[in-house]
Write a structure and sequence with these properties.
This protein is an all-alpha fold and about 90 residues long. It is about 80% helix and about 0% strand. Helix 1 runs antiparallel to helix 2, helix 1 packs parallel to helix 3 and helix 2 packs antiparallel against helix 3.
Length: about 90
């Protein structure tokens, strides 16, 4: 039974929603509906969201494959915790 991957998928989905809201807020603040209009803050918000949307699905598939192959739970949580930590760190350094 799969029990570890859904925990991390749920946490990362919440974080993706937060990033999505930040893009919406930046769009509302700038009045730019499409693209980023050379506005640096909006461009950063879009890329933070995009990076999460681009890389997290593959990482979750890898985590699920590891879980289905019977990898020890401690390693699954180590991978998941590293993924969460790095995903939270990414917007701070970008």
């Amino acid at each position: 039974m799969v029990s570890v991957t859904p925990v991390y998928a749920g946490l990362l989905a919440v974080f993706l929603m937060i990033l999505s809201v930040s893009v919406g807020a930046a769009r509302g603040k700038t009045g730019i509906v499409l693209g980023h209009g050379e506005h640096t803050g909006l461009h950063l918000a879009i890329r933070r969201f995009g990076n999460q949307a681009e890389y997290v699905p593959l990482a979750l598939v890898v985590l699920l494959m590891m879980e289905l192959r019977g990898m020890p739970e401690v390693w699954l949580h180590a991978f998941g915790a590293a993924l969460i930590g790095l995903r939270l760190l990414h917007p701070l350094v970008l």
